[in-house]
Specification:
Elements (H helix, E strand, L loop, with lengths): L1 H44 L5 H9 L3 E6 L6 E3 L5 E4 L6 E2 L10 E6 L2 E6 L7 E2 L2 E2 L4 E2 L6 E3 L2 E6 L1
Length: about 160
């Protein structure tokens, strides 16, 4: 009987190790494919010369302010262009946070307002207490949470 228990324990342990390896591979794959998807979407959208200026003025937001996290107190001017947030060095706002993905989220001017989009992040993007699952309009002063960092749009 002990040999049977030992064999079951060995195979169970091997199964757990393989499940862990597959979970890690899936997470890495998800990060890499979200990177490709974001690049393709940005290129396909193309420049829109007149809309960004109108959107920035209509939305009333001129600054993205970091309220919590490593960059607390920093302000990023919204110039009517897309703002990307993540760990990638080419992001508009680079955050060094283990809970943030390489390409975590973006804020884009659309239809006279700023819209928040999660870019397939692992840990999610939150507007207030709600998880962002699709393009979501961002009101002034509403907290945007990514990992340990929080942001707000301000006039």
């Amino acid at each position: 009987m002990p040999e049977v228990v030992e064999a079951v324990a060995r195979y169970g342990f091997l199964i757990l190790i393989w499940l862990f390896i597959f979970a890690v591979a899936r997470t890495i794959r998800k990060d890499l494919f979200s990177l490709r998807r974001v690049g393709g979407a940005a290129a396909a959208a193309g420049p829109q010369p007149s809309q960004p200026q109108q959107s920035r003025q209509a939305a009333g937001a001129q600054w993205l302010v970091v309220t919590q996290g490593e960059l607390a107190g920093r302000r990023f001017q919204l110039s009517g262009q897309m703002v990307t947030i993540g760990r990638a060095n080419d992001s508009t706002v680079v955050i060094r946070d283990d809970f943030a993905s390489t390409r975590h989220a973006r804020i884009v001017p659309r239809g006279g307002q700023w819209v928040l989009e999660d870019l397939g992040s692992t840990n999610g993007t939150y507007l207030g207490r709600a998880r962002v699952t699709g393009p979501t309009p961002v009101p002034l002063g509403a907290p945007i949470r990514i990992g340990r960092s929080s942001f707000e749009l301000r006039p």
